[in-house]
Amino acid sequence: MNGTTSTVFIVDDAREVRTGLSRLLAAAGYRVRAFESAASFLREHDAEAPGCLLLDVCMPGLSGLELQHTLVGSPDARPIVFLTGRGDVQTSVHAMKEGAVDFLTKPVDDTQLFAAVDQALKRDAEQRLERAIRDTIQRRLAMLTPRERQVMAHVIRGRLNKQIAADLGTGEKTVKVHRARVMSKMVARSVAELVQLAARVGVGVEPSVGAGTAGIGWRQP
Amino acid sequence: MEALVTRALENGVALGLSATSLALVAIWLVERRRRLSAENLHAASQERLALISSIASLGFWSWDAATDRVWASKHARGILALDDETALTGASLIAAIHPEDRPSVLRIINSPGPATDTMEMELRVVGGGNEIRFVTAKACAYRDAKKVVNRVVGYVVDDGQRKRSAAELLKMQHKLKHLARVAMLGELSGALAHELQQPLTAILCNANAAQLLSKKDKLDVAELQDILQEIVSDDKNAGQIIQRLRALLLRGETQFQHLEISDLLGDVLALARGKLRERNIQVNTRVDRDLPEVLGDRVELQQVLLNLLLNASESMNDNPARDRRLEVVVALADDESRAVRISVLDCGKGIDADKLERVFDPFFSTKDGGLGLGLAISHSIVIAHGGRLWATNRPDRGAAFHFTLPIKIGKESHERHNEYSVYSG
To answer: Is the pTM here over 0.80, yes or no?
Structure first.
């Protein structure tokens, strides 16, 4: 059972299946929304609302697999549990490779269904948390001035204020002030924490090529 | 015999009989011999006639206009179911003919013609116990100076054997149609199984939901009732799928009945729904309102429609998934034929112009693994329904298959389709 406000988004073109799944999941305490086609889901669903997709593979118009393909990598992506009329290995492998949580065959066993949905909702919650953290870090990063960014790049490489000052052609005191601002804006209590935050959003250190400043860079996620 | 006469003459001479009496005896003897041989000949020819007529199942008869007397050989009486005792007249001959075939016979007899006039026709005669027999009748009519028929001589042949083979053929065709149907449903089976899984899934979900709800402290009776209602209707839907399938799988007799084309189309689309969905085909139907009923065999016409739908959907295999539109149009035929026309339009590759006619030939197939019987069988079914099936290419792209079915016009059209009609095409 699911205590959060997560929603199971059902997409199935067969009315009776939509109704049946909705009733079952609702009876088990899930919040449910059902759509009759991939297109209506894309049009109407709230991407912000946490939850997972319970998706029929074979549908007229945009099929379940096509919808998955459309969503993968987009901000609207959410974990998908597939439902299919036939246990087609090739299709299921394809769906799983694209990141599906599970691939269930109709008529579906309720225990299996709940387990898959729970797993999908858990994954959604994790992904949302991860996204929220990354968003926060990005917001903090966005507050840095260009100079502070430069300083931070050096700091996360473990360079000392003196070295940074030399590299940037500025005074050690100025670097110290910049570093303090970076730590404060990024809400990092130690260099180690700052490195972790940076790593989380893909701002990191390239492997050293040698001495000097080479290999320090920003990678935007 | 000659030796006998010669000897008698020799003996006569020896006995000293007069030449005159000898001559008389000789004449008597010769005359007797002639008579005997003629009688023999007549008997022999009678025998031969009887033999031929029984081997060839021929029955000879003649009718004399002046006396209205009919003579009929034993075999003819057998074929025409005429009693020996009957004082046979022209009327009794006509009475032997099946009522529906009488008008055409009378028309031929009464129409003006040359002095001697032979005719041949196939007819049905009503035998003992109202059994219907097929016969071929050949007759020669002799007319007098005023061109009025005064004598008709002819024979009848019992076509029973031939018609029995025709009936056999009909049975074979029936089997073939059934086989084609089974093959087509085989093609659909995967999609149909999928189709059955929908109501089964729904039933299981609803039942599981009811189990969960029944464990709760507060019973939501309204919800439980809804669930049970849903289970009942889903189960009925599953039953209907099986019913439709069964109807097509069974090998029943051809049965003509009044049919609504829209019903027929609905059933076929329901059967093909899974397959069409699987192939991403969007179906658009345009059925004119208030169309008259047609007369036909439900199963066979479903077979034709299903065949055309599946062909059309397959023709679009190479189209992108969002460009597979199939259209079914049902309307009154725009010509004067008093028929309903059903058209199945696709937007596939179309048909090469030189193949438009040949697609209905048996074993002509453009599909991989296609037997090439589907369209040939559909064609023969439509023809047997008094309709027409043809193919055209659409002006922009894709092919169109059209067939017509005559609108039922009272009793007459029904009888045209009775069991005697033999397939063509």
So the answer is: no
